[in-house]
Amino acid sequence: MAGDGVRRRDFINIAAVSFAGVGGLAALYPLISQMAPSADVLAESSTEIDISAISPGQAIKAVWRKQPVFIRNLTPEEIKAADAVDVSTLRDPETLEKRTTAGKTNWLITMGVCTHLGCVPLGAGEGEVKGEFGGYFCPCHGSVYDTAARIRKGPAPKNLEVPPHEFSSDTVVKIG
Amino acid sequence: MSFPWANEYKPTNPLMQWVDNRLPLPRFVYNAVGAGYPVPRNLNYMWNFGVLAGFALVLQIVTGVVLAMHYAANAGVAFDSVEHIMRDVNWGWMLRYAHANGASMFFIVVYTHIFRGFFYSSYKAPREMIWLLGVVIFLLMMATAFMGYVLPWGQMSFWGAKVITGLFSAIPLVGTPLQQWLLGGFAPDNAALNRFFSLHFLLPFVILGVIILHVWALHIPGSSNPTGVEVKQESDTVPFHPYYTAKDGFGLGIFLMVYCALVFFAPNLLGHPDNYIPANPLSTPAHIVPEWYFWPFYAILRAFTSDFMFIPAKLMGVLAMFSAILVWFFLPWLDTSPVRSGHYRPLFRKFFYLLVVDVLVLGYCGGAPAEEPYVMISQIASMYYFLHFLVILPIVSSVETPQPLPFSITEAVLGKDEHATLAPATPAVA
Question: Which residue of B has its CA nearest to A41?
């Protein structure tokens, strides 16, 4: 061993320090992971909402994962306005059909969180400004969404996010 | 201060030179725990425990800061928030067990460190200040551990808080108002829990500060050693790094094995099941005892069962319990023997081991129910405890004939020291 310039002690040194290094890094994992959402927070990740009382043209604000969700019953005019837009001209090209459930195109369910910096856009509440495209308007930095909640104007990069959801029945939707 | 032959910090890397010229922090570390700190070459494994205690403190601060991210210091939800940590928080069970058992490991290590000091008389001149600061650290540790144990707000937490603050009610005249002031009420409740949490977070950093003073004071004369003979020459020392970083690293490995065995295989071994019952101000647990590391002192507290002259038994117990630690402050002046190490003090050595047995007996009695024969044994053991420090130690120091000391650490290690023949009578102290 001594002949080829490698000492037994070098091996022990490298092995010991490596072992301690791996152990130290392994100990870091729980210390970092503990800050991620805990089991009780994750358990709140689905919510069921009764939509029977929402008539066409109305919207409600529900809460999912401690964030607002807009559930909107679109009028035939609003659907028509959304379908009339040439998708290729949009910043985040998506059709209304893609953003809703087949056969229930009038139910537009999106997060009430502006994709710019996270404010709650106006337009879901009674009497709130809906913006020039008749959908939502974010008062923080002036992002304007259309009747399919797609970004049309202002700094936001994306359409309002559509959360995973399914209709448990004709009057109940489950989000998450 | 250091020995004249200490290695000097000479960075070769230009960046490190640049840093060293502006902020000599690397130099400071090098001189404190690096190759620039010469340490006696004969330290045995008992000298690992200072570094281990420092490691245990860091462990407690890291796990504690993390737990504080999830714990809620409110009497209404504290217990549930601890269960939330155990069940919901990612790795929360491990972090909490690591913190709870980390406290036990901290005390195991510190008790060993203290008894190392007893055996090798590490408290003697010129190291009195290190010792005094060490006792301060121990007192702060006890306060921190006690307040931490209250936080889960289980039955033992609540009744521990009540009993320990009740100690202060023994003080004449101001006792009861003082207890109410400490608790912010008539019994432990939200006010007490909140202030205990605040102080439990603060005190470890105070401990860290006193540890810095402790190590600073240590670096003036340098570490003591198993012979108790002071360093005389370069051949008596080796640089801290790599010699003692490696030796401490080995000790740390053993420490972590014991610690992990506790955390992963017996996390509740040293705890009390009663603390998994939410605090109930209307019902005291049948057998209420503190955590194991307080048992010897708890036994002394309970040993006083009848009034002594004009002093009520309650006050006497409290005074005795605090005196049991305060007496350590006087140790450097109670032990007058010119020889430090227990290796060369045959009579002292016997009494040292007797003290160890005495403290173990006190510990056992402190954890036992307050009934005979444990009360009687506690009384005898408490009496002996004070007898040891106040009577036996001064007498032994003056009557004992110590065995001959080696000329130097080098001689103790190698069996011979060429300098010994050159200056046999008056060794030159560096």
Answer: B88
Task: Quickly state the pLDDT bin for B41 (edges 50, 70, 90).
Answer: very high
* B343 labeled binding residue: no
Tell me the C-alpha distance between B208 and B141, whole Å: 11
Return the pLDDT at B309.
Answer: 76
pLDDT of residue B422: 57
A101 and A159 co-located in one domain: yes
Our CA angle for B410, B415, B420, nearest 5°, is 60
Which of B62, B69, B90 has its CB closest to that of A33? B90
What is the domain count for chain A? 2
DSSP B273: G
B219 annotated as ligand-binding: yes
ipTM of the complex in this document:
0.81
pLDDT in tens, B231-267: 999 999 999 999 999 999 999 999 999 999 999 999 9
**Which among B69, B88, B256 is the nearest to A35, CB-wise?**
B69
- For B249, the closest of A16, A30, A38 (CB atoms) is A16
| pLDDT-derived band at B425, boundaries 50, 70, 90 | very low
- Assess whether A116 carries a catalytic annotation: no
Q: State the Cα–Cα distance between residues B25 and B126, nearest whole angstrom.
A: 27
CA distance B56 to chain A (A): 15
Q: What 3-state DSSP class applies to B193?
A: helix
Best of A13, A19, A29, A38 to disrupt the B interface by mutation (most B CBs within 10 Å)? A38
* Each residue's pLDDT tens digit, B49-74: 999 999 999 999 999 999 999 999 99
Taking an 8 Å cut-off on Cβ atoms, the answer to whether A39 and B69 are in contact is: no
Size of interface A-B (CB pairs under 8 A): 37
Residues A149 and A165 in one domain: yes
A13 with A65, same domain: the answer is no
- B88 to A30: CB separation less than 8 angstroms, yes or no: no
If asked whether residues A77 and A124 sit together in one domain, one would say yes
Q: Does B88 touch chain A (CB under 8 A)?
A: yes
Per-residue pLDDT at B427: 46
In which residue are the tokens 């490691």 written? B55
Calculated CA dihedral for residues A118, A123, A126, A127, nearest 10 degrees: 120
CA distance B165 to B183: 7
To the nearest whole Å, the CA of A174 is away from the closest chain B CA by 24
Residue B99 annotated as binding? Answer: yes
End-to-end CA distance of chain B: 12
pLDDT tens-digit map of B143-197: 999 999 999 999 999 999 999 999 888 888 898 999 999 999 999 999 999 999 9
Residue B42 · residue B413 · CB < 8 Å: yes
| Domain shared by A12 and A57, yes or no | no
One domain, residues A94 and A130: yes
Query: Domain of A24?
Result: 2-33
Tokens in use for B323? 């005196």
pLDDT above 70 for B302: yes
C-beta separation of A116 from A156 below 8 A: yes
Q: B290 by DSSP, 3-state: which? A: coil
Domains and CATH numbers, chain B: 31-269 (1.20.810.10)
State whether A164 and A114 are in the same domain. yes
Say yes or no for a CB contact (<8 Å) between A39 and B87. yes
Residue B268 has pLDDT above 90, yes or no: yes
